[in-house]
Task: structure prediction
Amino acid sequence: MRNDFVAVSLALVAVPSILWPAPASALSISTVGINLYSGNGGGAPNLVNSDADANNAGSKASSYGWNWAFANNDSNAWGGIYANSGYGGVNTQDMHYYSGHGNDLGPFLGDGASYSDCPNGGPCLTTVPPNYNWSLDRLKWIAANACEWLYDGITTNSPPNWSALSPWYHVFNPSDGNPNGSLHAVLAARSETWDVTGMGSGYMDATLGWQGESAGQGWFDTMWWQMYFYPHSPGVEPAVLDAYQSSTGADWFNESLKSPWPDPDCCGSVEYNYHWDWIGTPSF
Result:
C-alpha cells in the first residue's frame, strides 16, 4: 500500500507552472558496498551480498550508458564519502548507491571505520545527517539498500514523524550560499531490509529499462520484488524522501531517470514529500 505525506518546510518563491526535461547527457553513478564488518572494527554482523549488490548496481547502470565512477567497498568505505561531501565523495556523481548496514543516521560503516572527514585541516565532520552536504552541484539521487535510513520511530502503516526526520532536511539545503540544491530524492527504507544481490541492478532495470518506472515507484517495486516476493521475507517498508513543490504539484518521486527533471534549485525553495510502501509485515 503506497502512501504519501507532504510537509512544507520552507516558503516558496515563484516557480514555473510546467517542469521540463533536463537536456540528455550521460549520467554517472558511484557505489559503496560493505560485507566484511569484521574488517571495519565490527559492530554488526558480516554480510554476504552487499559488495555484489553495489557492484551489480554500477555494472547495470553502465549497461544503460551511465558512467560508473567509483566503487569503494569494505575497508575503502569511510565517512568522508558522505560527510562534508562537497570535498568529494557522493557529490561528485549524479547518483550514489550504498549497500550495507544502516540506521536512522544513514550508512553504518563499522565501529572501527573512519567516520570523520577533516578537509583542509578541519573541522572534522562525522556521518550524521546535519553533516551530509548532498545537494551542492550534482548529486540527484542517493539510494540505500540498508536498514532504517528513513526510520522515524513509526512502526505502523502511518504518516511520518516529521520531527524525527528533520535532520534529513539538510541534505536538500546545504550551507553553500545557495538556499537549496541539486538533490532530488533519498531512496531508502523505513524498516529493516534484507541482504540481496539484485536490489541495485533491479532498480536500474526498473527505471532505465523497458519498464521505464519513475524514480520513486521503481524503488518501491524493486524492493517488493527483491525483498518480499523473492526471498519470502516477512515484509519490508521502502521509503522515499524527495523534493516537492505544492504550487505546481511537482513531486520528484514521479520523475524519470531516463529524462530527469531540473534540480529543485531551479524553481524556488524546497518542500518535502515522504512516501512509504507497507509490504507484508515489516521488521524494525
User: Anything to note?
Assistant: The mean pLDDT is 85. The chain has four helices and 13 strands. The longest helix spans residues 215-229.
